[in-house]
Amino acid sequence: MNDSSWGAPQGAGYGGTPEMRAAPAGPAYDVHDAQHTRPMPIVPDVPDAGRDADDRDDRNGGASGRRGVPPYRDEKPQEPMSTAPPPPQKKRAGRDLRAAIGVGVGLGAVIVASLFIVKAVFIGVIAIAVVVGLWELTSRLQERKGIKAPLVPLAIGGAAMVVAGYMRGAEGAWVAMALTALAVLVWRMAEPPEGYLRDVTAGVFAAFYVPFLATFVAMLLSADDGPQRVLTFLLLTVVSDTGAYAVGWRFGKHKLAPRISPGKTREGLFGAVAFAMVAGALCMEFLIDDGTWWQGLLLGLAVAASATLGDLGESMIKRDLGIKDMGTLLPGHGGIMDRLDSLLPTAPVVWLLLVLFVGSS
Q: What is the pLDDT of residues 59-113, one digit of tens each?
C-alpha cells in the first residue's frame, strides 16, 4: 500500500489576511502578483530651477506658461488591490485509481481462477510472487545501500519453502527456512569477505520476510476447505486496505504515524477495523466450515491490526532506502512488494486464528 492511500493530500493555498497577501515590493515581486496589483506612476526628478519658476508663477497668479510643475502633485497613488484567495482544491487520490483498479481486478481474477480450479497452480502463483518480491527487495538494497543479498539461493530456497509448507505444514516450512539461510551463508563465501556479515544478515532477513511469511498462505490452502480460507484471508486484507483508504481519504485529519507514513490517519485505521470486522463476520458465517460471526469479528480486528503494522513496516524500509515504491511492475500500485506489504504479516495471523477457531483440517 502506498502512503497516499490512508489520507487526503494537503491542499495548497494562500495564508494570512488579504493585506498580507498583497504583492511585495522589490525583487520578490513576480508575474503572478503583477496581475493583481496596479503599478504606481513613475515620474522623473524635477530640477530645482523649475521649482523656483513654478513658485514665481504661483505668486503672479498665472496658470499658463508654468514650468516645472511636477505631475505627481495632482495624482494620488493607487491603492494596491488585494488578491482573492483561490478556491479550495478538491481532494484527490494519491495514485492512478483507474490503473490501480484495473490491475487489482486482473490480479484478483487470476488468483481466484487458480485457487478454485487447481491448487497446484495457485502454489505456483505464490512462488512466482515470492521470487519477484525477493528480486525487488534485493535490487533496492543493492541500489540504495550497497547491500548484496544473494538472490539465487533466496529465490530457489523461497520457492522450495512455499512448496514445503504446502506439502509438510509448519515443520516443512521451518526446515526449508533453515536450509535457505544456510545456503545464503555458503553462497556469499564465494565473494570477498568485506561486507559479509551485512550481506548475509540482509539475506536471512529477506528469506524470513518474503517467502517464510508467504508459506502460511500455502498452509491455509492445504486444509480441506483451503480455497475458502485463502479467499477469506485475501478478502479481509483487501477490505481492510479499502476501508482505510476510503475513510482516511474522506475524513482523515489526525496522523497515525507521521514520522513513518504521513499519509496514514487515525480515521483511516478506524475505517480499516470497521470494514474488516464486518467482512470477517460475513466470511466466517458463510465461507468457513463451523465458523461463527463473533469469530469473524475477532478475525477482522486482528487482520486490520496486522495489515496496518505490515504496511508501516514496509514504509519504514522504504524510508530507510529513500524510495517511494519497491518497483514499477504494477501500474497504480508500484511493485509486487508494495502489494504484499500488508498480506505477508497477515497470513500467519489468519492461519493461527483459523486453526484455533475451526481446526487445521
A: 444 444 444 445 544 455 555 555 555 555 545 545 566 766 776 677 778 788 8
How far is it, in rounded angstroms, from Cα 315 to Cα 4?
Answer: 12
The three-point CA angle 135-137-143 to 5° equals 95
Residues in contact with 31: Cβ distance below 8 Å, sequence separation at least 6, in sequence order: none
Place of cell 513496516: 313
* Phi/psi of residue 184, nearest 5 degrees: -65, -45
The total of other beta-carbon atoms located within 10 Å of residue 309's CB is 13
Q: How many residues does the chain have?
A: 361
The residues, any chain, with a CB within 8 Å of residue 234's CB and separated by 6 or more, are: 111, 343
Residue type, 87: P
196, three cell numbers: 559479509
Q: Are 209 and 344 in contact (CB under 8 A)?
A: yes
pLDDT digits (tens, 9 = 90+) for 218-251: 999 999 999 999 999 999 999 999 999 999 999 9
* pLDDT for the residue 104: 67
Q: What's CA 322's distance to the chain center, in Å?
A: 13
